[in-house]
Amino acid sequence: MQQPSVSIVVPVYNEVPNQHDDSFRVRIQGLLALLRPCDELVLVDGGSIDFSWPTIKALASHPQVSAIQSEKGRARQMNAGAAKAHGDVLLFLHADTVLKIEAWQEFIQKLGANGNAAFWGRFDVRISGESKWLPMVAWFMNQRSRLSKIGTGDQGLFLGRDLFERVGGFPEQPLMEDIELCKRLKRIAPRQFVPIRKPLVTSGRRWDVHGAWKTIVLMWRFRYQYWRGVSAQELARQYADTREKRSLTVAVFAKYPQAGRVKTRLEPLLGADQCAEFARYLLLSTLDKLHGVNVVLWTDGGTDAEWDALLEGSQFSGPVQRHIQPTGHLGLRMECAVQTHLKESRVVVLLGPDAVQFSKTDLQQLERAAQTHSMAFVPALDGGYVALACTRCVPAVFSETIRWGTASVAEQTKAALHMQCISAQWFQAQMDIDEPDDLKAAIQHGFVPEDWATHYS
User: Is 39 exposed, middle or buried (0-12, 13-18, 19+ CB in 10 A)?
Assistant: First the structure.
C-alpha cells in the first residue's frame, strides 16, 4: 500500500530581520532534507515587512517548496497553506520549530501503520532555552497532551486532509486556534489520536524572557478562562497586556558614510570626501549622545566589516545591534522598524543622525508624550521631522502617498493622523543639517563644534 503524502505548512511573519540572518533558512533547509519525493513544504507569509518574503521566494526555487502570501494571523495563514497543499496529511509547524530526523522517522512509521490518513495527533516537544525549568515544562506539556488529546502549535499538529476539511480547518481566531482544533477533532475522531514520542525542538525564548513560572501560570490561566467560555479575542487582548517589554528602543537610521552617497547637498561647501567624514561624525556623536539607551542601528549600504570598523570609533557602551533597512520608500522602512521593535518595547523612537539639536532631555519628553498620546513628533525646520515616537504602528503615517523628502512631510503626516482621528503631540521644530546654511547655523548656535573634523579621527 502506498504511504500517504505529507504537506508541511509553515506560517511565517517577520522571521528574517536582516539579509545576514540565516537561522530561518537553515531550519527550512533542514526540513527539505527530510522530505520524501511525494512530500512538499508550503511556506505562508503573513505580510512580513522584513526580509522574510524575499527569503521565502528564494527557497521556493526548490521543486518541493511553495511560497504564498495571505492575511496576517496564524490560523488564516495555516488555512491558506492547507488550501494550497496537495498532501494526504497536513503537518503544521511553527517557523521557530526544528523537526529532527528521529521524530520525522517515527512520524513516517505512523503513516505506514495508518495508511488511510484518517488520524490526527502531535509530537512530544523539547524546549530549547536558558531556564533550568524548561525540561520540566516540556514534560508536563507532553503528559497533559497525551492524557487530554489537546495539542498546541508548538507540538506540531498533524491530521489527514479529510479530517481537516470535516472540522472546517483552523478557526480564524487570534489565540487558542490550536486548542479549538483539537477539541473539534476529539469530538469527531477521539480514537484516531496518534501521539509521536520523539520530540520536536521549539524555542524557549518566551519562557526565558518572561520567566518560566510566570509564563506557565499565564498559559494555564488562559486555558482555564477559555474553558470557562472567555472569547479568544479577549484572551488575545489580555495576552498583549501581560507581555513584559523594555520601556524604550531608539532606532537610528543611517547610510554608510561613503563619498558621493551621503550629505551630497553639502558638497559645494565641504566636497564629497569631507561630506562622508561629516556623516561619520554625525552618526558617532548621535550614538555617544544616546549612551545608556537601548539603540538599534538601521543601516543602508556598507559591509559588516565596514560598519564594525566605523563603530569602533564611538564611545557608545557595548556593541550596537544592527538591522539592514529593507528596500522601498522611507515610510516603508520606518514602518518596518516600528513593527519590529514594538514587539519588545513599549515605546519606539525613530531618529536620524543629523538631528544635532536633539538631546536626551528631548528623548525623555518624547517618550512621555508617546505614552500619553500614542504618537509624538519633533518636527524639523525644513518641513519634515527629526524624531518620531510611538506606542503603536499607524500605517497611514508611513504611507507611500506622503511625499518623503519634501517640505510637506510634517503637514501630510498631520493630515493622515487627522483622518485616523489620532491626536499626536508635536514639539517645537528643531534643526537638521542638509544644506550648507544649515551647517553654518548649527556651528554658530553651538550644536556642531567648529572643529568637528578633529572628532573621532
Answer: buried
